[in-house]
Amino acid sequence: MPGTGHDVQASPLFAVEGVSVRFGGVRALEDVSLEVAPHEVLGVIGPNGAGKTTLFNVVCGFVSPAEGELRLRGEKIHALRPHQLAGHGIARTLQGLGLFERMTVLDNVMVGADRLARAGFVRGLLGIGHRDDARLAAKAREVLGELGIESYAARYPGSLPYPIRKKVALARALVAEPELLLLDEPASGLSAEEMTELGEIITGLTERTAVMLVEHHMDLVMSVCHRITVLDFGRVIAAGTPDEIRNDPAVLAAYLGDQVEHDDAAEVHALTVAEEA
Amino acid sequence: MERLRSIIRPVASVPLARHLVVALVAFVVAMAVIGSSSQYLQTRYAEMAYFAIAAGGLTLLTGLSGQLSLGHGALMAVGAYAATLVLERTGGETLADVFVALLVAIAVCAVVGVVVGVPAARLHGPYIAGATLTLAVAVPRLANQWEVFGGEQGLQVSVPRATDLPAWIQDLVWFFTAVEIDQYSFLAYLGWLLLAITFVALANLSRSRVGRRWRAVRDDDVSAELAGIHLGRARVVAFTVSAMAAGLAGGLMAMNVRLTAPGAFTITLSLTLLAAVVLGGLGSLTGALIGAGVLAFLPKFATDLGESVGLSATQAAEVTPVVYGLVLMLVILLAPAGIVGSLRTFLARSPLGSTKEKTT
Q: Cα dihedral angle (B117, B118, B121, B123), rounded to 10 degrees?
């Protein structure tokens, strides 16, 4: 079980309040509210098309909600554009990773640290910003080292195995020293062993940041999350601790009802197994 | 050997120092070559210098920030007309006049760069190519319409005579090359001096946080945005820097050609610049220099080739575009990464290849 001793009941770091999103006539999100406390791991689960990624896109400013608002440390951040999030301490990994393929791993991570850079255009033009750059590079190497992939610093992402690429994407998000880290399907494509390692990494992250986790793999979600919010058809159908979610009839119904259309059988299985355990 | 390395290492680890050393060495070599060349070759070297400045700006824009511009010939026209009009008013008799004219050319192009770059930053791929193409078509026509630009005939450009240059420059050149400076070598030296300075600045930018942001925006705009990079701003900065280089190149071109007329800045010029950049290798300043060399020297080579197989002079002159197109096609087919890109791959594979990634 999680529970690293942090007080997850503290005042929320981040809150989504009554957010609704419509694409044309389709309601992607309907009156969704949730809270993330500092140092907490909040899982967001739900069948395919439940609105999990849309929710992340709202948080990141890629999609603007028709109603509702977002609060970071109590302050409204409703109208933020995507590039302003990093400055507010929010980082995100993408499902497709979105690595900079023609840049080295080190450069990839240094871009992630861009908000901590001080040297601007003039220093760049005159070629006197290298001390600042060296500082960023050292920071990037430190994060790569923590994830155990420092030896790949000079490589290009395209030549690396998928699990390493995922770690590069994670390092790029972490190096910005976020207070809230959004992880979009971090376990997809990983082996069972790698997933266990990922779980340990995520639990370790709570030392420095709160985590919002969208994930299909129930084992992982159940083992690392302090609390879980379940979405179905754009609505919150359940919220609570992993134990509460496991025994929630609405959640089971949502997953079972979905079985025929989507290949979520594995999740249902995991859920049932978890329940039996 | 070890001692030599310990001297070199601190220089090599600081980008500015490394770029300055390379530029200085290159400039001294260029001076020696120019000093011992014929007038004809000096003119070609001067041409190579201004093409390289424009190509250097373009290769950063296209190779690093990922924006394709078909309008850099037009930006060179803007720089050329700006410099010409300034020289017309100041008389163009002193070195100071020359530098003022070039600075104005750069400044005007910076403004044009922002004006064009802001809407262009919202466009992607073929659309930005189309938008910049409009610039390439429109600018020469505008020049045609207004009296102040001299219409179809264009404007004469006055440049200081070599004998009017400050004595210390004449002495310095004589000291280094043992040849008196004249009109042709003066323009070649000036071109290569400015080329060296421009390339140091561009190489610095490319190695810096600014260049890293450009690459990030080029490779994945969503991830770049999430890292806190304002996409539009990064693109506009790249476009403006590149436009300033084109402006300087245009000003130098005006001084070399001695005539600024719309006919010199057709769409062909824009396409030729782009071809030079592709030829050398996108994003590589060394590649831009090589591409510019091909631009400057290929016509002579192709014409000679044509005449040697028995074509008349006029027919031979038409061979140039064909050869140019062939060379470009060969490079794209055989070495898609350009000349420098392919060399780098080759070196990395060969046992010699302890070469680290460079931004030259």
A: -100
